[in-house]
């Protein structure tokens, strides 16, 4: 898929079956990790703002890995959104939804996957113009049965379930008509990063290609 400079949420979600949820503690790991994921066919990279180094990691990937499309995860405030955009992020993912944070991502030109866990939150996000949402925390909030229940009332909404999604259940999530992709941390295991085992990360990324999603 060719990507314009300005992305849409659907482009972010439909580029691959899995968006890796990345926590980086050392800026030196950011670029080789990103290159390893891209080598395995994963280029939408969600670097979560959970460490002090996260923004520097986003900046390094944006500057040095042109084939990657780096985004910021765990965006919770308007300040997070502005900082992510300034660091070079091209999309944002949030654990929840607020109007102020959503407007900040719009102002920054970042497509947003806002997090929802209840029907009321889906409705609030939909009223604000968002129809591609992150279902988080997926397993704790009802998992596959919840997504199936939402297929009727929210027929016009697509989801990226994240939280408890793993290689063991990813295919079952992806089989749902209202799921475009899943988010998962298993592509970047902490031990692989600690051991600089970039080949393992590439292998894990390649394995996700078997999780084919054809109906968006």
UniProtKB/TrEMBL annotation:
UniProt xrefs under InterPro entries: Aldlse_KDPG_KHG (IPR000887), Aldolase_TIM (IPR013785), KDPG/KHG_AS_1 (IPR031337), KDPG/KHG_AS_2 (IPR031338)
Pathway note: Carbohydrate acid metabolism; 2-dehydro-3-deoxy-D-gluconate degradation; D-glyceraldehyde 3-phosphate and pyruvate from 2-dehydro-3-deoxy-D-gluconate: step 2/2
Coiled-coil stretches: none
Record-annotated membrane-spanning stretches: none
GO MF terms, alphabetically ordered: 2-dehydro-3-deoxy-phosphogluconate aldolase activity
Keyword Cytoplasm: no
Record-listed E.C. numbers: 4.1.2.14
Keywords carried by this UniProt record: Carbohydrate metabolism, Lyase, Schiff base
Reaction catalysed by this enzyme: 2-dehydro-3-deoxy-6-phospho-D-gluconate = D-glyceraldehyde 3-phosphate + pyruvate
Pfam assignment, any one: Aldolase
Subunit field text: Homotrimer.
Family under the similarity heading: Belongs to the KHG/KDPG aldolase family.
Protein name: 2-dehydro-3-deoxy-phosphogluconate aldolase
Gene: eda
């Amino acid at each position: 898929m060719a990507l314009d400079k300005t992305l849409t949420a659907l482009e972010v979600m439909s580029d691959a079956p899995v968006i890796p949820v990345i926590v980086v503690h050392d800026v030196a790991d950011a670029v080789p990790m990103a290159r390893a994921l891209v080598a395995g066919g994963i280029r939408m990279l969600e670097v979560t703002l959970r460490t002090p180094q996260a923004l520097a990691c986003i900046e390094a990937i944006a500057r040095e890995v042109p084939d990657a499309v780096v985004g910021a995860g765990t965006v919770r405030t308007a300040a997070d959104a502005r900082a992510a955009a300034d660091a070079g992020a091209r999309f944002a993912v949030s654990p929840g939804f607020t109007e102020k944070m959503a407007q900040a991502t719009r102002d920054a030109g970042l497509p947003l996957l806002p997090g929802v866990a209840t029907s009321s939150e889906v409705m609030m996000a939909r009223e604000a113009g968002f129809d591609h949402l992150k279902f988080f925390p997926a397993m704790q909030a009802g998992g596959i049965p919840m997504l199936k229940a939402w297929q009727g009332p929210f027929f016009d909404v697509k989801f990226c379930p994240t939280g408890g999604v793993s290689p063991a259940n990813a295919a079952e999530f992806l089989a749902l008509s209202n799921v475009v992709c899943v988010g998962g941390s298993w592509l970047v295991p902490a031990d692989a990063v600690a051991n600089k085992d970039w080949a393992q990360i590439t292998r894990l990324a390649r394995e996700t290609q078997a999780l084919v999603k054809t109906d968006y």
